[in-house]
């Protein structure tokens, strides 16, 4: 099969394969976070839709860029769960999808305003591609996650009727969630990554210390979400923090992809708490 031809092996439908290669679950979760933050920020409906779509488009480019960049490594270690590796998805299709999503990200970001566009394109999408292109194999593998997730709230607030940077506590919570998710997402692939020369922060810390640090960061992010806004925490906050605590424990005790999924759930719960607090 050549790079531009249709897939010749049996596999999922093309749309499903494309979504899988884009790391669709995390991409949709990040877009959902942006949408919830936009609701809390009282953006106009058009601006809410544009910001959410711009964030989603940027995240899709990061996911597709990641699988394209890692294709030789994934083939070397036999990661048969990836459509590009199995041949269920031609490389050319992913390249075209990445180009379309990249253009959509630029256009949608511009519609949200130049300040929001600059943050989304340079600090969010740019950080993600910097990770793909080399930072993932260094001590600085955490930095793109910290900058991207830390500035995500500002993508929303800079698109509002009174553009402004998000409060520092929001930035801190986002950065903590991002780094925690990075540590947990890498754990199942530590051995394969080492074999192909990838040694980011989680590889250097080791599995045990990475789990401990991730759990602490997720807890800190949740506490910032509760204690950061002005005024006393809402009376119902403990009811939300209880499942957050359970999920944080899962990041320590569970294996496979469950800890990363728990981190995504913590992020969504934190944003729901923030929105509900108003």
TrEMBL record:
Segments passing through the bilayer: 15-39, 46-64, 84-111, 209-229, 235-253
Keywords (A to Z) from UniProt: Membrane, Transmembrane, Transmembrane helix
Topology within the bilayer: Multi-pass membrane protein
Location of the protein in the cell: Membrane
Major localisation: membrane
Name of the molecule in the record: UbiA family prenyltransferase
Organism: Streptomyces heliomycini
């Amino acid at each position: 099969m050549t790079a531009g031809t249709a897939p010749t092996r049996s596999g999922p439908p093309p749309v499903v394969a494309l979504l899988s290669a884009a790391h669709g679950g995390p991409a949709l979760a990040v877009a959902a976070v942006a949408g919830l933050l936009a609701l809390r920020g009282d953006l106009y409906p058009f601006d809410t839709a544009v910001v959410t779509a711009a964030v989603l488009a940027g995240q899709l480019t990061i996911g597709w860029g990641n699988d394209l960049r890692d294709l030789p490594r994934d083939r070397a270690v036999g990661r048969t769960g990836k459509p590009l590796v199995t041949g269920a998805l031609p490389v050319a299709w992913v390249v075209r999808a990445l180009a379309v999503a990249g253009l959509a990200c630029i256009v949608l970001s511009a519609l949200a305003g130049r300040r929001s566009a600059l943050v989304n394109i340079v600090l969010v999408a740019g950080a993600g591609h910097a990770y793909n292109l080399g930072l993932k194999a260094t001590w600085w593998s955490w930095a793109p996650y910290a900058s991207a997730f830390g500035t995500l709230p500002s993508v929303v607030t800079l698109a509002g009727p009174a553009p402004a940077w998000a409060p520092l506590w929001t930035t801190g919570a986002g950065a903590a969630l991002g780094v925690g998710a990075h540590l947990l997402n890498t754990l199942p692939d530590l051995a394969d990554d080492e074999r192909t020369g990838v040694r980011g922060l989680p590889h250097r810390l080791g599995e045990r210390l990475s789990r401990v640090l991730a759990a602490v960061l997720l807890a800190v992010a949740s506490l910032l979400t509760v204690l950061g806004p002005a005024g006393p925490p809402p009376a119902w906050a403990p009811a939300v923090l209880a499942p957050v605590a359970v999920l944080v424990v899962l990041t320590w005790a569970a294996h496979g992809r469950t800890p990363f999924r728990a981190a995504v759930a913590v992020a969504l719960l934190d944003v729901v708490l923030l929105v509900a607090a108003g």
